[in-house]
Design goal:
The structure is a single chain. The chain has one domain (2-242). The mean pLDDT is 92. It contains eleven helices and two strands, in the order H-H-H-H-H-H-H-H-H-E-E-H-H. It is 72% helix and 4% strand. Helix 1 (2-25) runs antiparallel to helix 2 (33-55), helix 2 packs antiparallel against helix 3 (61-80) and helix 3 (61-80) runs parallel beside helix 10 (197-225). The chain has helices spanning 2-25, 33-55, 61-80, 83-105, 112-129, 146-153, 155-165, 169-172, 176-182, 197-225, 228-242, and strands spanning 183-187, 190-193. It is mostly helical. It is globular and about 60 Å long.
Length: 254
């Protein structure tokens, strides 16, 4: 178990290195909603993989890996349904409208250029997000669950959800079962943190899910950019990931 985990952790550094080169080669049109979304999602996931490298054997790597899965899923969903890229980007106006209304209710001044920008786009924002009762939707993607979105994208994301993401929610949300596995009572006032194979496996699975998530995001950026160097890098990385026990890399097409 320890040897396999070390191999996975060592691979994290290579995944990050490849990702940085692909990101540098990826020079999108940031006025295009999909290009912009892909670029910022890739930037964030590369930062997250660096955090995983720092955490190494810490259980909170699970939290970062789950976040990376969500990012990859949202991006893949937006590739499949292009309007979702537009919705994601425009939802920022909903946040600005709510903030502007709050400031006005408090008697605070709003910079005229900001108010003009909001008003210029308000009709489109209302079309996308306004409900019958006059309020705005809670999120840019509506009221769908993560699992439903995964199911609509493809079987690979559904597999990742069922195999990794969902079981890890117990730890993410402070479930008693996840904490009981990790801490043992040693006397009336003290607990000891456990580090058995079951816990190590869950951390290893989190890193594998992170690899799959970042790979999907990188793959989308490569498909958009079509840089020959990046195409070769991601194909080589795919072959190496397949050699890791438990991994399965797939490509999300445009």
């Amino acid at each position: 178990m320890d040897e396999e985990i070390k191999r996975i952790q060592d691979m994290s550094k290579e995944v990050k290195k490849v990702g940085r080169v692909i990101n540098q080669n990826f020079q999108p049109n940031l006025h295009n909603d999909l290009d912009y979304m892909c670029k910022v999602f890739l930037e964030r996931q590369l930062s997250q993989i660096e955090s995983l490298i720092i955490l190494k054997n810490k259980n909170d790597s699970i939290l970062i890996a789950r976040s990376m899965f969500e990012g990859a899923l949202y991006l893949a969903y937006s590739v499949k349904i292009p309007e979702m890229c537009h919705r994601w980007r425009f939802y920022g106006y909903v946040i600005d409208i709510k903030r502007m209304n709050q400031y006005k209710s408090e008697g605070k001044d709003i910079p005229i250029e900001i108010e003009n920008e909001i008003n210029k786009n308000k009709e489109e924002v209302d079309r996308l997000f306004k409900k019958d009762d006059g309020s705005y939707t809670y999120s840019w993607y509506g009221n769908k669950s993560i699992r439903k979105i995964a199911k609509e994208v493809d079987n690979e994301f559904l597999r990742l959800y069922d195999t990794y993401y969902s079981p890890m929610s117990e730890y993410h949300h402070w479930g008693v079962a996840s904490l009981v596995r990790r801490y043992t009572i040693v006397n009336d006032y003290e607990v000891k943190e456990n580090d058995n194979d079951e816990i190590k496996l869950e951390r290893a699975n989190a890193i594998l899910m992170a690899f799959s998530s970042l790979y999907s995001t990188m793959s989308i950026s490569v498909n958009i950019n079509q840089c020959p160097e990046s195409i070769k890098l991601i194909r080589d990385l795919e072959r190496k990931l397949k050699l890791l026990h438990g991994t399965k890399s797939t490509e999300i097409g445009l």
